[in-house]
Each structure stands twice: as structure tokens, then as C-alpha cells.
Specification:
Blueprint: H1 6-15, E1 21-23, E2 29-31, H2 45-53, E3 60-64, H3 70-76, E4 81-86, H4 89-102, E5 107-111, E6 124-130, H5 139-147, E7 150-158, E8 171-173, E9 176-178, E10 180-184, E11 198-202, H6 204-214, E12 216-227, E13 230-239, H7 240-248
Parallel strand pairs: 3-4, 3-6, 4-5, 6-7
Antiparallel strand pairs: 1-2, 7-13, 8-9, 10-11, 12-13
């Protein structure tokens, strides 16, 4: 990391309205922990999964929704190159600051809207997609776009199950209906919310169906868990050509 005096680090803390915190290599903390959550210590399990399973040193990676860069700095240490995007300018500034302090140079940070991603933005070996899909009004259309942009998709998202109390709000894409439920977002000022006032959470079965229809030949569930906001799943989806390469290896 870049050598910083306590005063310099304090200035970085005050210049930006941090909502997350990360332990620096020298033991000090950059940012602040989210209310009710601890500072990020060590490598996040999802980043470790990429490092151990996907051979990222050979690959380009797109991080969708980088927030303040806590995962970005970890991914950069394992991947050949990282492109990190976020829709909020403050998050872009925080991520750039995080990368500067960690002295990392293989990352491009871009102000971009996940809802508008297409192959025109670029193609990547891996897309790292945590905590974004359930903030979208059209999660199915988004998955179809991602399928043309990557070979492997690391996806971590909330889903609905049969016992949900959320109101039904199905997604229709290319003439097919996918079960989904409406969720009330907290607005632009809440950095942990989506950009729209509402979003739609896919039913678990609809998520797997949408991934298959979009062109992902396999979707391996890494973890299912229950969180205060609802059920959540972390999976690895692979395009057909990526699945074939894995089998050959």
C-alpha cells in the first residue's frame, strides 16, 4: 500500500462519506463499518472462490456494482485485469481512493449503469455480480445481456421462495413469463439500494430458468443462505463453451 501518515489517512476518511470499512495491510482501517456489520477482515469467501476455482490470473473480470471498492481491491490482487462499475459518483470516488491507497494499477473504474450493460460495453472472461440483480426492475433482461458479455458469472442475489409475502410482479421477456415479486427500494440516497424506486426479486426457480434460457449451460449452487431481508443464493453460471473447457481440463 501507499505509505500514509495517520493525518493523511484521517484526511482520506473525512473527504468522503464512507459507508463501508476495510482493514488495510498495515492494520489500520479505511472507511467505516456499515451499521450492524463489522469491518471487512481478510479475503471475502466469494473473492476467494474466484481465486481458487476460476484461474483469474489468466482472465479479465467485470465487477458490477463495486460500491466503495472493498471487493475491487481484493479481486485486483488475483485477476489479470478488473473493470469495476457503479452508478453512483461517490462510490466511484471511494473505489478510486481504495485502489490508490492499496497501490493497485490493473483496474479500470467506470461510472456506468448496470441496467444499460450490453456487449458494446465489452466482453469479459468473468462477471462478478454481488447484490445487484435484486435491485433491478428487469432482472431477466439483464441476465440475457450478461450472457453475451462473459463466459462465467459469479452471481450472489436475493430470491423469493414459495412462502414469500411479497406481491407478485412477474417479468415477461421474449414472450415468456418468469415468476417475480415486487420489492420497495429506499431511494438514490441509500447507497445500498437500487436506482429505481422499486425492484423485482425473481423466484428461485425462475432465476435458474432465466439463466438457462439466457444461454448459461450450467448453474452450480455454491451456497444458499437466509438473511434478514430474505433468502439468498450464490452460484456460478457458465456458458456452454466455458463448461466444455472445464470438462476437457
Amino acid at each position: 500500500m501507499v505509505p500514509l501518515s495517520d493525518q493523511q489517512l484521517a484526511d482520506f476518511q473525512k473527504l468522503l462519506d464512507w459507508k463501508t470499512g476495510i482493514r488495510l495491510p498495515d492494520g489500520r482501517v479505511l472507511g467505516v463499518p456499515r451499521k450492524g456489520r463489522s469491518i471487512l477482515e481478510g479475503i471475502d469467501p466469494r473473492v476467494r472462490y474466484v481465486a481458487e476455482k476460476l484461474k483469474p490470473a489468466e482472465k479479465t473480470l467485470l465487477e458490477v456494482g463495486c460500491l466503495e471498492g472493498t471487493f475491487t481491491v481484493q479481486l485486483a490482487k488475483f485477476c489479470r485485469s478488473v473493470t469495476a462499475i457503479d452508478i453512483r459518483p461517490k462510490n466511484v470516488l471511494c473505489t478510486l481512493t481504495n485502489l490508490f491507497i492499496h497501490d493497485l494499477h490493473n483496474v479500470q473504474v467506470k461510472l456506468a449503469d448496470a441496467r444499460e450493460l450490453t456487449t458494446k460495453f465489452g466482453t469479459f472472461d468473468v462477471i462478478f455480480h454481488l447484490g445487484v440483480l435484486y435491485h433491478l426492475m428487469d432482472p431477466v433482461g439483464h441476465l440475457f445481456k450478461l450472457a453475451g458479455m462473459c463466459r462465467e458469472l459469479v452471481l450472489d442475489t436475493h430470491v423469493c421462495l414459495d412462502d414469500t409475502r411479497m406481491k407478485r410482479a412477474d417479468v415477461v421477456h421474449r414472450g415468456k413469463t418468469y415468476r417475480a415479486h415486487r420489492y420497495k427500494e429506499r431511494g438514490w440516497k441509500d447507497v445500498f439500494s437500487g436506482a429505481d424506486n422499486e425492484s423485482r426479486w425473481l423466484h428461485y426457480d425462475a432465476l435458474r430458468e432465466a439463466l438457462s434460457d439466457a444461454g448459461f449451460a450450467s448453474a452450480e449452487v455454491v451456497q444458499e443462505r437466509s438473511e434478514p431481508n430474505g433468502p439468498r443464493v450464490w452460484l456460478l453460471a457458465r456458458r456452454a463453451e466455458a463448461s466444455s473447457a472445464v470438462r476437457a481440463a
